[in-house]
């Protein structure tokens, strides 16, 4: 009886070891390091993902439009200021001051409007990053489980680590598979 129990124990230990090896081998096949701590370069994660590259192109295009608009407004204001300056010698000082103050207020209003557009563009970029991180979280959580990790730390905040704990490239590849570029198409409005 004791011999049978020892045999069963040996079989159980062997099966448990094989199961552990299978999980370990699966994780290694997936390219995931087995570590309780993983690191990731979050800036690179966003910037090099399809999602991040799409957002960067969009923000760059909208920034170019805003810059062109600012140059056009600047040219118009320069022309208007020159016309006001040219009219000054033939005007009463008080009448000129009224026009000059109105022009200054117009310039301040335009500056506020253009600054608001620039802030909205920056906010759009920040919102896209938040959207990306929220959408990427399940992918990163799966990677943590596969690696048997308990935490993913920002690579830049880690003083020293083995390069094997950096899963940024793998995370980018997996996130690209799941999210693509993150664009919502008209054909699939439920995304």
TrEMBL record:
SUPFAM superfamilies: OmpH-like. The keyword Methyltransferase does not apply. It holds the Pfam family OmpH. Keywords: Signal. Transmembrane segments: none annotated. SMART domains: OmpH (SM00935). InterPro entries: Chaperone_Skp, Skp_dom_sf. It comes from the Bacteria. Residues 1-19 form the signal peptide. This is OmpH family outer membrane protein.
